[in-house]
Amino acid sequence: MAGKGGMDKAKGKMKETVGKATGNDRMKAEGKMDQAEGEAKEALDDAKDSMHGKHGKR
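The structure assignment produced for this chain is given below.
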């Protein structure tokens, strides 16, 4: 099951792709930022899980 980080990454990838296709640099940049935010959320969740001894279970 994809968490919030995964959703942000997917949304960002879509925005980036549309931005590239339309030549919209702002949308492309927003997409990259959304992807970075998603990766950060996933890293934070992984760190929390590690601290609590969880291994991929939510």
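Interim note for the steering committee: The mean pLDDT is 89. DSSP finds two helices and no strands in the chain.
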